[in-house]
Amino acid sequence: MSSPLPIRARVVLLCGPSGSGKSLLAARSGLPVLRLDDFYKEGDDPTLPQVVGSSDIDWDHPLSWDADVAVAALSQLCATGRTSVPVYDISLSARTGSEDIDFTGAPVFIAEGIFAAEIVERCREAGVLADALCLSRGAVTTFRRRFLRDLREGRKSVPFLLRRGWRLMRDERSIVARQTALGAYACDRDEALERLADASRSTREVIGDVRVPGSPPRPAAEPHDVTAPHS
User: Fold this and answer.
1) Hey, what domains does the chain have and what are their CATH numbers?
2) Which of 51, 101, 118, 149 could bond 58 through an S-S bridge, CB–CB 3.0 to 4.6 Å?
3) Using an 8 Å Cβ cutoff, are 206 and 149 in contact?
């Protein structure tokens, strides 16, 4: 990942097992959020991996996710504050459109998803990484949260959700170990909020008011309160 344009923002990559509370934490932070789940491959992609010994697609394998497209979007956001991202429907395993997002004026944003750790090194090499966090709450808690969320949202069939949930509960320790080995820092919700506040402060000091040549003056950023939940 390389950006020929001056860096206007940096990213905090937020990973963790499915159901660990990443989306809730990101929303509570008050920072702009990029949903990395929108970069899943479509269900008819021939490169999708399967669960060993099953006909199920392994949506928890990094190869089910388009890292190159995600990194390109992150690079553009860090350079210009704007990009276009796909809108993905997990229940359909398909992209249903695209969305233009604008983080102009925010020196830090969050990119959250179960595969965020996969791009830690690429973001670090590009100089756009503010921090990388791995949220963990324990296998039983994440199993319950994940199953109730996926059932409520109708993401997949109940048998599929149960098979996936049982497999992920058994594998949670190794999932966290992999994400931390890739460069994410394992922490709970409270420590994650503290590190987000630190990342926001330090990035403001480093980046200052750098802007892309030819772009309009950047409006003053509103202060972000990383301790107060959204209404």
Assistant:
1) 10-207 (3.40.50.300)
2) 51
3) no
